Amino acid sequence: MAALQSSIDSVRIAALAADKMKATDIVAFDVSQPLGITDIFMIASARNERQVLAVAEEIEKKLYKAERLQPREREGLTEAQWVLLDYGDFVIHVMHDETREFYNLERLWKDCPLIELDLPEEPAPVTAQDSPEAVRA
């Protein structure tokens, strides 16, 4: 059984949010066959701890605004090296560049189908109203 279309649609919203905050190497794998407990793993990288948190925050904000989704679990917010957002049907990993390189999650899921995220060629510009400082205000 393949990932549900609703999960794919939600992950695309998350990927666009990550892209907007200048996350890099955004990929998503359909892990429904080998795991059975979730449909999709999405992975995105960020240059530093502040950006890891900003990307995770933007993803949460956009998924709540678009679909009223909230993560069941949030892990890694204190260290901000690897933030995991568990939405049940899909899991988002926002990782510091060095952490992602060390754990190399893609190696684990290389046999799973990639999900087309429909991201724009160029990263979306961050506007003043979208910055982490403006979100907290």
Architecture per CATH nomenclature, i.e. the level-2 architecture: 2-Layer Sandwich
H/E series, N to C? HEEHEEEHHH
Number of strands: 5
Distance between the termini: 43 Å
- Beta-strand residue fraction: 15-25%
CATH homologous group name: Beta Polymerase, domain 2
Number of helices: 5
CATH level-1 class = Alpha Beta
Backbone structural class: alpha+beta
Q: Give, in spatial order, the strands making up the sheet with the most strands.
A: 1-2-5-4-3
The pLDDT mean sits at 91
Low-confidence runs: none
Biggest beta-sheet profile: 5 strands, mixed
Helix content: 25-40%
CA-based gyration radius:
14 Å
Overall shape: it is globular
In quaternary terms, these chains amount to: single chain
What is CATH's topology name? Beta Polymerase, domain 2
| Total discrete domains | 1
Q: What does the model show?
A:
A 5-stranded mixed β-sheet has the order 1-2-5-4-3. By secondary structure, the chain is an alpha+beta fold. It has helices at 5-20, 49-67, 97-103, 105-109, 132-136, and strands spanning 24-30, 40-46, 73-75, 82-86, 90-96. The longest helix is centred in the middle third of the chain and has 19 residues, at 49-67. It has one domain: Beta Polymerase, domain 2 (2-Layer Sandwich), CATH 3.30.460.10. The model has no long low-confidence stretch (mean pLDDT 91).
